[in-house]
Amino acid sequence: MTSQVVAVAAVERSEVDAELELILSVCVRPVSVAEVASYSGFPLGVLRVLLADLLDQGLVMVHTSDWERRRPDARTLRSVLERIREL
């Protein structure tokens, strides 16, 4: 959710569904996925699928934060949680 999404300006969008056009209008400047969900009214899960479609079509770019690239994997988090429970 901390990733930034921005519409690709130079791409022709003549055959884009209304839902995707709404998302693109929100993404005229870099915004977080959470902001796009809020502005568009789409549930986060639905929005992620629609953003994936837009990304596949080359209509948006996604910039992932350094934090997301470096965050621990699920196995590490589970291990930490187990150790905390042992305390």
Quick overview:
Pfam families: DUF742. The protein is mostly helical.
Describe this structure as you would to a colleague.
The chain is mainly alpha-helical and 87 residues long. The chain has a single domain, classed as Arc Repressor Mutant, subunit A (Orthogonal Bundle). The protein is 55% helix and 11% strand. It contains five helices and three strands. It has a three-stranded antiparallel beta sheet with strand order 2-1-3. The longest helix has 13 residues, at 44-56. The mean pLDDT is 86.
Topology of this protein?
Layout: E1 4-7, H1 18-26, E2 31-32, H2 33-40, H3 44-56, E3 60-63, H4 66-70, H5 74-86
Antiparallel strand pairs: 1-2, 1-3
Pfam family, one: DUF742
Protein name: DUF742 domain-containing protein
InterPro entries: DUF742
Instruction: Return the structural class.
Output: mainly alpha
Number of domains: 1
**Main sheet overview:** 3 strands, antiparallel
> Could you give the order of the helices and strands?
EHEHHEHH
- Beta-strand residue percentage: 5-15%
- End-to-end distance: 32 Å
Mean pLDDT: 86
Low-confidence segments, given as residue ranges, are none
Task: Specify Rg, calculated over alpha carbons.
Answer: 17 Å
**CATH topology group:** Arc Repressor Mutant, subunit A
Number of helices: 5
What general outline do the C-alpha atoms trace? elongated
Counting DSSP E segments of at least 2 residues, the number of strands comes to 3
InterPro entries: DUF742 (IPR007995)
Protein name: DUF742 domain-containing protein
Pfam families: DUF742
